Amino acid sequence: MKKMIAVVAVALLGLAACGEADNAAVPGPSKTGKDVIGQAPAAAASDILPGSTMEKIKSRGELIVGGSLDAPLLSQQNPATGEVEGFDATMGKALAKYIIGEPKVKIVNSASETREALLANGTVDVVFQTYTITEERAKQVAFAGPYYTSGLTIAVKQGTSGITKPEDLNGKKVIAGANTPAIPAIKKLAPQAEIVTFGSDPECLQALKQDRGVAYVQDETLLIAAAQKDTAIQIVTKPFTVDPYGIGLKHGDDQMKKFVNDWLGKIQADGTWQQIWKDSIGTVVQGDAPQPPKIGSVPGS
C-alpha cells in the first residue's frame, strides 16, 4: 500500500508542478487600506543562521510555498491581476518578507495527497494550505503553529432535507477530499456512510452538484466561501470538529520550525496576523479577528 501511495504521489507531483504560479509582485494596500505586507516585520540578519534553510531561501530570493490557486478567501488566483489572494496566500507573503525582506513567493499548486512528498523532496519550502495538524501527519512533516483554527461542517445541494447533524449521514453517500480529516470524522460519527473521495475542493463541489453524493464534508472556511459564490449549495451544520492549521515544514528541520514559530509569535503580537484575517476571511465572517491559537498547543505542533 505504501508503495502504491508513493507512486501516486510522484505522479501527482508532475500535475502539481503544472500549477505553479509566480507571485512575486509586491502587493499594494489591503482591502482595508492598510499596507499589511509593507508594515510586516523583517528578520534581523542575525536570525538568518549560516547554512540554514532560511539562508538558502534568502539566497534564492524567493519562498516556494505549497498551496492552492482555487481556494476562495484562503489562496485563490485573481484572474484579472494574476495575484494569489487570501489568508494563506498573504501569510506566505508575510513569511517571505520576514526571510528575504520582500514578499517574493512562488506557489506550487498542491493536492492534499502530495504535500508530504513536496516537503520531503524539497520541491517546496513551506506549506500554507488548510493543513490540519495531526499526530499521524507529524510523523512525516514538521508543523509550525498552529496559526488558525477551523472545523468541519456539512454542505448539501440547496433544498436537500433530512441532514442537520453528522449522524444523519449514516446510510448515505458522502463526498470528502482525499487524505483529509473529513474521512476519519465521517467514519467516527456516521460509520454507515459510504465515503467517495476526490482530489480537490472544486472537484468535490462539482460532484455534490452532480448528485454523486448527497453531502460534502469539508472545512467551514472553504464551504462558507463556496456557498457565498454558488447559491446551489447550502451549509446545514455548525462546525463539529476543531481543526488546527499548521505551517508544513520539512520533517526534522528544527531550526526552521523555531524560526517560523518566532515569526508567527511576532505577527500575532504586532497585529499583522489580525489584519491579514480582516482582509480575507473577515470580509465574509462578521466581527473582530479571532484570538489566534497558542503556538505549540496541539499534539504534533
TrEMBL record:
Keywords recorded for this protein, A-Z = Signal, Transport
Pfam families in UniProt: SBP_bac_3
Q: Does the keyword Signal apply?
A: yes
Q: Which residues form the Solute-binding protein family 3/N-terminal domain?
A: 62-284
One cellular component term (GO) for this entry is: extracellular region
Example GO biological process: amino acid transport
SMART domains the UniProt entry points to: PBPb (SM00062)
UniProt lists the family membership as follows:
Belongs to the bacterial solute-binding protein 3 family.
Per its record, how is this protein called by name?
Glutamate transport system substrate-binding protein
Which species does this protein come from? Answer: Nonomuraea muscovyensis
Its taxonomic placement starts with: Bacteria, Bacillati, Actinomycetota, Actinomycetes, Streptosporangiales
